[in-house]
Amino acid sequence: MKEILNNLIQKSNQKIASDPAYSKKLQSVKKTICITFDNKDSYTFKIENNHISEPVEEKSDADIYVEVSSDLFKKILSKEESAMDAYLKGQLKIKASLMDKLLISDLLKS
């Protein structure tokens, strides 16, 4: 999953660099995100200074916590499944403020 997460982060960083509106939206964002796959593998990364860091394989304190199966995460990224539908069905769990949930939604669309 680390490789898939790295690809998502790389695409997001490219979007930040090439899309001034998206870059402006993330300009003052400073968040730590922890994603846990299949209730066992956790990765933590940060968004700050208009950049998303590489994920580190660890579960740590974060502003945003996401729990999802690796299969569902792959389907969301390939657009086979909707993140919103998965969230409403309880298959994608996000522990965060509403604004932070919207941030995650934007990242998954990258």
Q: How far apart lie the N and C ends?
A: 17 Å
Approximate strand percentage:
15-25%
Describe the sheet with the most strands. Answer: 5 strands, mixed
CATH-derived architecture: 2-Layer Sandwich
Fold and architecture overview:
- A hairpin with a 3-residue loop joins strand 1 and strand 2.
- The chain has a single domain, classed as 2-Layer Sandwich (Nonspecific Lipid-transfer Protein, Chain A).
- With 110 residues, it is an alpha+beta fold.
- The radius of gyration is 13 Å and the shape is globular.
- Helix 1 crosses helix 2.
- The longest helix is centred in the first third of the chain and has 17 residues.
- The two termini are 17 Å apart.
- It has 5 helices and 5 strands.
- The mean pLDDT is 93.
Keywords for this entry:
SCP2_sterol-bd_dom; five-stranded mixed β-sheet; 23% strand; Sterol carrier protein; 110 residues; 45% helix; SCP2_sterol-bd_dom_sf
Explain the layout of strands and helices.
Blueprint lengths: L1 H17 L1 H7 L4 E7 L3 E8 L2 E2 L11 E5 L1 H8 L5 H6 L4 E3 L2 H11 L2
Parallel strand pairs: 1-4
Antiparallel strand pairs: 1-2, 2-3, 4-5
Helix pairs in contact: 1-2
How would you concisely characterize the structure shown here?
This is Sterol carrier protein. This protein is an alpha+beta fold. 45% of the residues lie in helices and 23% in strands.
